[in-house]
Give the backbone structure.
Amino acid sequence: MDTPNTMLIAHNWWALALRGALGIIVGLTMFVWPTVALHTLILIFGAYALCDGLFTLAAAWRRAHDHRPWAVSVLGGALGVVVGLAMFAWPAMAAFTLATLIAFWAIVTGILEIVAAVRLRRQITGEWLLALSGAASLLFGVAVLAAPILGALVIAAWFGAYAFIFGAMNVALALRLRAWKHSDSAALGSARADH
C-alpha cells in the first residue's frame, strides 16, 4: 500500500533528479579540467555542498509541514550549508582541512542516505540505488579521511568520480520514482473510472 511518505518522495522526484544532475555536472567538470586549482576546487565543492544542503533543508521543511520526522534531514542539510559557507568564507584553507571537511561531509551524507534507503525498502522498488549512493559516499569519505594529505589533483579526481557516480545514481532513482508515480496515478485513475 502506498504511504503518504512514498507519494511525497515520488511527487518530488524532480528535486532528486536536479540534485543528481548537479552531481554529474560537478563530476564532469573535475574530469574536463584535471589541473583545476585548489581555490577553484574549494569554490566548486562549496557551491555543491551549499546547494545540496539547501535542497535537504527544503525537504526537511516539507516533512515538518506534513507533521513527519524532520530532524535527520535538518542535520544533513545544515551540515551541507555550513560546509558550503565555510568553503566560501576561507577559500585559502589548506588541502588537509579541505580533505577532512569533504570526508566528514561525505560520511554523514552516506550514512543518512543508507538510513533513508532502509526506511524506503518496503515502499518502493529501486531503493538499493539510494543505498548504493550512500555506500559510495561513505566509502569516498573514508578513503579521503585515510589519506588527507594527497595532492589537490588527486582529491579533485576522487571528488569528481564520487560526484558523477552519486549524481548518476540519484538521477536513476528519480526516473524510477517518476515512472512509479505515473504508473500509480494511472492505476488510481483506472480504479476511479471503474467505480
Remarks:
- The two ends are 19 Å apart (CA to CA).
- The chain has a mean pLDDT of 77.
